[in-house]
Amino acid sequence: MHDSRGAAPQVVWRIHGARTRCYLTFDDGPDGEWTPRFLDALARADCRATFFVVGKLAVQHGSLLRAALAAGHVLGNHGYSHRHPWTLSREQARREVRDGADAIAQATGERPAWFRPAHGRLSRSIVDAASAHGQRVALWTLSAVDWGPFATKQRILARLDALRAGDIALMHDGPMRHNQPARTLDVLPRLLVLLAQKNLEPASLPTSLQCADE
Q1: Residue 105, SS3?
Q2: Which domains does the chain have, with CATH numbers?
Q3: Helices and strands, counts by H and E, the chain
Q4: Burial of 39 (C-beta count, 10 Å sphere; 0-12/13-18/19+)
Q5: What are phi and psi of 59, to 5 degrees?
Q6: pTM higher than 0.90, yes or no?
Q7: Angle between helices 35-44 and 181-197 (to 10 degrees)
Q8: How far apart are CA 93 and CA 123, in angstroms?
Q9: Helical H runs in the chain?
Q10: 10-residue block means of pLDDT along the chain (214 residues)?
């Protein structure tokens, strides 16, 4: 999906021109138990990531958002209530994006540059709502599939080991529904070692993006 001016795409699956970087993203937080542990693991490796946060959880855990920003991470908007975009009217989509961004701004003083729809599902209404609020939509190149019965540590690590330059990886720091943040956290240090061996630098999504592949 492109905007009418032919600028950079509204929906981004990978970062164009990233020669040595890949982009780690974590969804469905902040969570009082798991998010601090992910922040600690990233800090030990001196790595940065992007956290796509749910607005109603951001209201409860503003201190975690401020800690993430202070550590150099980027915060993205994951909607206020994590409702599936296909169930939302145009007005509901607008509120979902607006209220999620407002929750982040109220907690941190900064408005997010990125939006990720719940379940990674797109609709014209949700993309338009994000664009209207100045947010680019970030999906992912590769998912850890760190939820449900197939979220073993071995499978999570094998999927993430396929990361290449420019790729965006989807993981979860929040235990919403069937997520398995404990298993993701267990494999994260090993993943960071594997990326270093491939001369890949884990990074947060850029808040100013000149170009991107769809």
Answers
A1: helix
A2: 12-203 (3.20.20.370)
A3: 7, 9
A4: buried
A5: -60, -35
A6: yes
A7: 20
A8: 9
A9: 35-44, 55-60, 62-70, 90-108, 124-132, 153-160, 181-197
A10: 44 93 98 98 98 98 98 98 96 98 98 97 96 96 95 97 98 94 98 97 85 44
